C-alpha cells in the first residue's frame, strides 16, 4: 500500500524522469524541491514521520541512493530531522519561517523622535549624534541647479575609464582583492606625487601619500591620531560643516571657529593653543577668499612654535579661471607642519570616494598603521585604474576641458545675477575659482527657510548661515554652477528670482 507521502508527490509534480528532450532529470534536486514544497505549505506536518528510504524508492521508482541524498540534503537545510532506529521526521521549526520578516500591522507606524528627546525613533543615540542630527546639513538631493560642490559627472570620460578598469579586472591578482596595510596602491601614490609636485607645488615622495575614502575619512583619521580629549581645534568661521561634524563625533574636543578677514583665517596669539588648525587657503570654503602669502607664513610659523599641525584642505584648487592655480601652503617650506588633503570628488565624480593625504615624514608610519587598523583599506583595482588615468594624461586633459566649461558657466551665472538683481548681490573681490558663487542676501532674510522654499520649486542651494559657528552670521546662498548647463541655467535662475520676490527682495 502506497504511503500518503508518495501519493502527494505523485499528485503534485512527480513525473516520469525523462523530459521532452529525452535527457535525464536531476532526480535528487527534483525530489528535494517537492519535499520542501510539501513541508513549507503544511502538507507534511511538523513531527510527521516520512517513509523509509526503501519504501519511497519503490513508490517513486527511483534508486535508494537518490532518496538518501535528498533526505540528507533536507536534513542539512533544517527541513528534516532523523533519529537512529526511529526514522526521518519533518522538523518542528520550518526554516522558511526564519527567512521572512513579519509584516507590519496595517496602520502601524514607527515612532518618530521629537526634538529634544533622547531617542531617535525607538533608538537612543549618543549626545554627539543627536547634536549633529539636530542641525544636519547634508541634502537629500545631490544633483541639479544650483547644488554647490558637485562637478558635471556627465562629462567624466567613462568610456576611457571603463576600458582601463575592465583590463585591470581581467588580470586582477589576489593581492589586489584582499585587505591592504600600505596606505593604498603604490602605482597611484607614484602618479599622485608627480602630479601634486607639478600642479600644486606640493613637496612629497610617494611614501608620504595615504589614500583614503574621501576628505571626511582623512579628517577623522587625523583627529583620532593626533587630538586628545579636551584639546582645541581651530577651523575657519564660516567653514565646511562636514569637517566640523567629523571632529565633533570624536572625543570631547574644543572646536573653535576662527573668524576670517581679507587675508584668510585670523590668528589668536593670546588664546588657547590648538592641536590642529583646519584651513582651505587656496580657495576658502565657502567664501572663496585666498589666504595671503603673509598670512600663510605667519600660520606656518605659529604652528612650528606651538607644536600644532595644519590641515590644508585643497578641495577644488584645480579650477581657477583667471590665472594659474595658487600653489599649496604645504610646499612653501621644507618639512612643513602641514597635512595636505585632496580628493577626486570635484575633479572626477563624488561617488568615486577616493581622497588622499600627504603626511609629514614623522606621521607616515603611525598614521598608515592607524588607517589600516581603523578602516581596513581596499579598492585597489579602482586606485590602479586612477593611476593609469593620470599616467596616460587623461586626468590632466579632463581637468583642462572642465576648467574651460566651468569658467563659461560661472560667467553665465554671474551675468544673470548682475542683470536681474545687481552686482551688489555678488561677493567682492571675486576669486575667479571653484564650483560655486555666493549670492549675498539682506540680513533680515532667513536663508534656511529660503532654501526650503526653493527646493519645493525644484531648485537646490545651500544657506550660507549654516556654515557659521558664531552668532554673527552673514545671510546668503551658495549657488553651484558646475552641474548645470547654460541652456537650462536661466530657467532655474528665474525660479530663484520668483521666490526671492515673494520674500520682498526687489528684482
UniProtKB/TrEMBL annotation:
Domain HTH gntR-type as annotated: residue spans: 25-93
GO MF assignments: DNA binding; DNA-binding transcription factor activity; pyridoxal phosphate binding; transaminase activity
TM spans (from-to): none
Record has Transcription regulation as a keyword: yes
UniProt keywords, alphabetically: Aminotransferase, DNA-binding, Pyridoxal phosphate, Transcription, Transcription regulation, Transferase
Any one Pfam family match given in the protein's UniProt record, by short name: GntR
InterPro entries, alphabetized: Aminotransferase_I/II_large (IPR004839), HTH_trans_reg/aminotransferase (IPR051446), PyrdxlP-dep_Trfase (IPR015424), PyrdxlP-dep_Trfase_major (IPR015421), Tscrpt_reg_HTH_GntR (IPR000524), WH-like_DNA-bd_sf (IPR036388), WH_DNA-bd_sf (IPR036390)
Annotated family: In the C-terminal section; belongs to the class-I pyridoxal-phosphate-dependent aminotransferase family.
Protein name: PLP-dependent aminotransferase family protein
Species this chain originates from: Comamonas kerstersii
Organism lineage string: Bacteria, Pseudomonadati, Pseudomonadota, Betaproteobacteria, Burkholderiales
Amino acid at each position: 500500500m502506497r504511503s500518503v507521502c508518495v501519493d502527494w508527490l505523485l499528485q503534485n509534480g512527480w513525473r516520469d524522469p525523462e523530459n521532452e528532450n529525452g535527457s535525464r532529470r536531476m532526480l535528487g534536486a527534483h525530489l528535494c524541491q517537492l519535499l520542501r514544497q510539501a513541508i513549507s505549505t503544511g502538507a507534511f506536518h511538523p513531527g510527521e514521520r516520512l517513509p523509509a528510504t526503501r519504501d519511497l524508492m519503490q513508490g517513486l521508482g527511483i534508486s535508494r541512493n537518490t532518496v538518501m541524498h535528498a533526505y540528507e540534503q533536507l536534513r542539512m537545510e533544517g527541513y528534516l530531522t532523523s533519529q537512529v532506529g526511529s526514522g526521518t521526521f519533518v522538523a518542528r521549526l520550518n526554516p522558511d519561517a526564519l527567512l521572512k520578516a513579519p509584516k507590519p500591522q496595517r496602520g502601524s507606524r514607527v515612532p518618530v523622535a521629537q526634538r529634544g528627546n533622547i531617542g531617535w525613533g525607538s533608538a537612543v543615540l549618543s549626545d554627539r549624534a543627536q547634536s549633529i542630527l539636530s542641525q544636519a546639513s547634508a541634502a537629500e538631493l545631490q544633483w541639479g541647479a544650483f547644488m554647490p560642490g558637485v562637478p558635471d559627472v556627465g562629462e567624466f570620460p567613462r568610456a576611457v575609464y571603463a576600458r582601463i578598469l575592465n583590463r585591470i579586472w581581467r588580470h586582477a591578482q589576489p593581492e589586489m582583492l584582499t585587505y591592504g596595510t600600505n596606505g593604498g596602491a603604490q602605482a597611484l601614490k607614484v602618479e599622485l606625487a608627480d602630479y601634486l609636485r607639478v600642479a600644486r607645488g606640493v613637496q612629497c615622495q610617494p611614501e608620504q601619500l595615504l589614500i583614503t575614502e574621501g576628505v571626511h575619512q582623512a579628517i577623522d583619521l587625523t583627529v583620532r591620531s593626533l587630538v586628545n580629549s579636551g584639546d582645541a581645534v581651530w577651523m575657519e568661521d564660516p567653514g565646511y560643516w562636514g569637517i566640523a561634524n567629523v571632529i565633533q563625533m570624536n572625543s570631547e574636543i574644543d572646536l573653535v571657529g576662527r573668524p576670517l578677514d581679507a587675508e584668510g583665517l585670523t590668528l589668536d596669539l593670546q588664546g588657547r593653543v590648538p592641536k590642529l588648525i583646519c584651513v582651505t587657503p587656496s580657495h576658502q570654503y565657502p567664501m572663496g577668499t585666498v589666504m595671503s602669502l603673509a598670512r600663510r607664513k605667519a600660520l606656518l610659523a605659529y604652528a612650528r612654535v606651538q607644536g600644532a599641525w595644519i590641515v590644508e584642505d585643497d578641495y577644488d584648487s584645480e579650477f581657477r579661471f583667471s590665472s594659474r592655480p595658487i600653489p599649496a601652503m604645504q610646499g612653501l617650506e621644507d618639512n612643513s607642519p602641514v597635512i595636505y588633503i585632496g580628493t577626486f570628488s570635484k575633479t572626477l565624480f563624488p561617488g568615486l570616494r577616493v581622497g588622499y593625504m600627504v603626511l609629514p615624514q614623522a606621521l607616515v608610519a603611525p598614521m598608515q598603521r592607524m588607517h589600516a587598523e581603523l578602516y581596513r583599506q581596499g579598492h585597489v583595482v579602482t586606485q590602479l585604474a586612477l593611476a593609469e588615468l593620470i599616467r596616460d594624461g587623461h586626468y590632466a586633459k579632463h581637468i583642462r576641458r572642465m576648467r574651460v566649461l566651468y569658467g563659461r558657466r560661472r560667467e553665465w551665472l554671474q551675468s544673470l545675477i548682475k542683470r536681474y538683481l545687481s552686482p551688489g548681490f555678488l561677493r567682492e573681490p571675486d576669486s575667479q575659482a571653484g564650483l560655486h558663487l555666493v549670492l549675498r542676501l539682506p540680513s533680515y532674510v532667513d536663508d534656511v527657510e529660503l532654501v526650503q522654499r526653493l527646493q519645493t520649486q525644484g531648485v537646490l542651494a545651500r544657506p550660507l548661515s549654516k556654515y557659521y559657528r558664531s552668532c554673527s552670521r552673514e545671510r546668503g546662498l551658495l549657488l553651484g554652477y558646475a552641474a548645470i548647463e547654460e541652456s537650462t541655467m536661466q530657467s532655474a535662475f528665474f525660479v530663484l528670482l520668483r521666490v526671492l520676490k515673494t520674500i520682498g527682495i526687489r528684482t
